[in-house]
Each structure stands twice: as C-alpha cells, then as structure tokens.
Amino acid sequence: MTEDIEVSRRDAVRFPGISPRAYEHPVDRGALATLRAVPGFAQVVKAISGFYNERGERLMALASSIRVGPKQYPELERLRHECAETLDLPAVPNVFVFQDPRIRAETVGMDEPFIRLSTGLVELMSLDSLRFVLGHEMGHVLSGHAVYRTMMVRLISLQLSMSWTPVSALGIRAIIAALREWFRKAELSCDRAGLLCGQDPTAALRAQIQVAGGIDPARIDIPSFLQQASEYESVEDIRDSFLKLKFVETESHPFAVVRAAQLQRWAASPEYRAILAGDYPRRDGDKPGSDWKDDLKSAAQSYKESWNSSADPLTKVFSDVGEAVSGAAGKVWNKFGNGNGNGS
C-alpha cells in the first residue's frame, strides 16, 4: 500500500438499513428484472448452483491466500469493518489477499460471499482508494450480484467445454452476452457503493486511474484523463460505433476511462447528495418482485437518456427506442399483473 495521509473517518456518513436500490444503476436493476421474468430462469439458477462448489472455493482461499484479520493486514481489517458498517451489511464478509501482480478484486460465493484482493492492487493503492475498492465489492454483496456472476462464470466455462458444438455458438452465447451486459452495469452500480463507503470522489478517481494504467496518479492530468472518455463517447464515424459494440461484447467490466467519468458524473448529481443527506430507500421497504415494472421502465429511460445525450452516430439512430421499450414494458407488465400471472 502506498503511504499517504488518510482522510479522517470521524465525519463519515453511515446509511442504516440502506437498500441496494439506492445506488444501483437503473439498467442493472432492469436487466435483472428482465432475466428474472423469463419463465424457468429460477430453475436455471438452481441448476447452475448445483454445479458450484462454494465450500471448495472457501477452502481454496483459506489454503492459498492471506485472510485479513487483526494480525494480518490490520489496516485492511479496519477498512473491512468500516465499509460493512457504512452500508449496514448484515454480516461482515471475509477478505483474502492473494498473490497476483495484476490489479484484481472480486466477490465470490452465494451463501457466504467473501472478497478477494490481489497483491498488485493492495501494493499499488492508497488506503482511501482501497476503501473505495472494498466498498465496491461490498456493494456486490448487498445487491446479491454474486449469484448471477457465478452463473455467468459457469456458463462461460460450459461454453468453452462445448466450443465444438453449434449449441455453444447460438443459445449459450446469447445468454452470456445478456449476462455480461448486465454485469457491466452492475459494476457501475458498485462503483457508486464504493463511493458511498469512501465519500471521497477524488480517491475513487485515483483508484480508477490506476486501473486504467496510471501507476502514479500524480503523473496523470485529470482533465486530460476525463477528456479521453468524452472523445470515446462522441465518435463521429459509424465504423467506430460498430467497433465499440464489437469490443464491448466480450468485456465483463466497463472500460476503465468511461467508467471513471460515469462515476464522477454521479458524484456531482443531486441523487448522490440526497443519499448523503439521509434521503434513500431502506431495505425494510423493499418488496421482492413488486417493483419489476418500474425497474424495466427505469432501465429503458436510462438507455434513452444515454442515447439522446450521445454524439455517437449509431446510438442516435436508436434515440426513440428507449421510449418505445419503456411504453411496451409498462403495457406488458400491466397485462401480466391483471391477468393470470402472479408477478413473481
């Protein structure tokens, strides 16, 4: 870990009973609502879960990496508890540090999720940036993302083992593409959770600069860095638009520069300020399944706003799609709710 003067936590805001809906990206929620609405999806999740040995993964972490505790990485132990308290997690996830020079962090497990941090990440980042990273991973825990991420990883593994069959090239690829699109948006959600834990947009930006390749953030000009995102988002050649779609399809995470710019925009939003002021949805007010229609409409509206504000020629072609999908989603769900379906 780099040496720095840490931001005091005495004045940090905590969020008792916060619902993950407070920070989740609308397309993240909408994508999950769509997946859950597919007939038989719950059975697919259960079947995939049967092939997943969470107990084995915990044993492997215990045997091959360092478990964070009062006497092992005590500074991370403190951050672990801070982040869990800030987001009011029901249980504090275990954190393991594993040997890997790459910058990596992940949340593993369905029943008892735990967090893995690479040595490359821990050695490179300041304590304030590590707080952002741990908050991000705890956002995955609170949102229950590990179930669907595990499903995605297992399907990718299945696809590779069946690469010689036409099934791999058709059905499984389509499902994986949908899950990857959801997970990219889930990453944006959890960046927001990380920001809520650290409450320091500059530390979050430093962490994302390092993910993008900024070994020393002091050597990076922030306006120039954010300008890269603006240039990427405003390409004027439709050939570039198609290339963007091609490259992003196989990515599990949003591109680092674009991701950083999106979080900085959220940090400057009234929504973020309202949460800091205590105005946010609580978990005790969540009713599973009751808000799916709103989630679908919010997702469609989010896409529409993104398209309308983009200079990308391909996205402008679809500028009216968000409104159409939003209206269609409402009609379908109204019909479903008034018909024979039960909405769950």
From TrEMBL:
<keyword id="KW-0479">Metal-binding</keyword>
<feature type="domain" description="Peptidase M48">
    <location>
        <begin position="70"/>
        <end position="266"/>
    </location>
</feature>
<keyword id="KW-1133">Transmembrane helix</keyword>
<dbReference type="GO" id="GO:0008233">
    <property type="term" value="F:peptidase activity"/>
</dbReference>
<keyword id="KW-0862">Zinc</keyword>
<comment type="similarity">
    <text>Belongs to the peptidase M48 family.</text>
</comment>
<keyword id="KW-1003">Cell membrane</keyword>
<feature type="region of interest" description="Disordered">
    <location>
        <begin position="279"/>
        <end position="298"/>
    </location>
</feature>
<keyword id="KW-0472">Membrane</keyword>
<keyword id="KW-0482">Metalloprotease</keyword>
<dbReference type="GO" id="GO:0006508">
    <property type="term" value="P:proteolysis"/>
</dbReference>
<protein>
    <submittedName>
        <fullName>Zn-dependent protease with chaperone function</fullName>
    </submittedName>
</protein>
<keyword id="KW-0645">Protease</keyword>
<feature type="compositionally biased region" description="Basic and acidic residues">
    <location>
        <begin position="280"/>
        <end position="297"/>
    </location>
</feature>
<keyword id="KW-0378">Hydrolase</keyword>
<dbReference type="Pfam" id="PF01435">
    <property type="entry name" value="Peptidase_M48"/>
</dbReference>
<dbReference type="InterPro" id="IPR050083">
    <property type="entry name" value="HtpX_protease"/>
</dbReference>
<keyword id="KW-0812">Transmembrane</keyword>
<dbReference type="InterPro" id="IPR001915">
    <property type="entry name" value="Peptidase_M48"/>
</dbReference>
